[in-house]
Amino acid sequence: MPHNSLAPTEYPVHELIARRRSPRDFIITPISQEDLWSILEAARWAPSCFNEQPWRFLVAHREDSEDFERLLTCLVEANQAWCCRASALILCVAKHDYTLNGLPNDWAVHDVGIAVGYMALQAVAIGHFTHAMAGFDKKRAREVCEIPEGFAPVTMVAIGKAPEPDVPLERSRKPAETNVFTSIFGDALNQKV
Ligand SMILES: Cc1cc2nc3c(=O)[nH]c(=O)nc-3n(C[C@H](O)[C@H](O)[C@H](O)COP(=O)(O)O)c2cc1C
What we know:
There is one protein chain. The protein is an alpha+beta fold. It has a single domain (15-167), classed as NADH Oxidase (3-Layer(aba) Sandwich), CATH 3.40.109.10. The protein is 30% helix and 16% strand. The protein contains six helices and four strands, in the order ααβααβαβαβ. The protein has a four-stranded antiparallel β-sheet with strand order 1-2-4-3, with helices on both faces. Helix 2 crosses helix 5. It is globular. The model has no long low-confidence stretch (mean pLDDT 95). The structure holds flavin mononucleotide. Residues 21-22, 24, 79, 132-135, 155, 169, 171 line the site of flavin mononucleotide.
């Protein structure tokens, strides 16, 4: 799939959304501090329940070999195989409880997900791609990254430039009627426009 190809959407969406994808390979290249911070800044401005901002990001540039290696070795082998060429790796962590009252924050993982989504779009806007991953060893991540109690690893994200042509991807989505309903679960929302 060419570098700038667009998702075949059923309805118009912003070009950033259509261009975003999760590449399965990267060109070995550093990312500038400016670009990496721009991607992190997008995450910073994500909405969150009670503005708790429950996300924590453990970040490694590929040039910071000790940090990069620490994060890389948390990934399962299949992800390490291509993430070793990423420009940066991020371990996304959620704070379980609200800081205000110590009660469980049931939306913490949800809000980390929004922040990762913001990162993905900002990355595309400035010529990079992100790829979120569940395929990593959470226990190992907790140990080697010294994650304290009260925080939980959620996902890892690789950032980089995608090669052109990229590893071909089967990009598809379920039809909307399978997951967009009226107020009755399973009753497909009318798509007549
Ligand atoms: C939470 C989450 C976990 C994922 N885990 C992995 C993973 O471990 N390895 C991988 O190659 N892709 C992983 N992906 C990428 C998905 O496979 C990908 O987003 C999906 O196939 C849709 O493709 P697209 O992002 O290019 O639209 C993950 C995505 C998300 C959001």
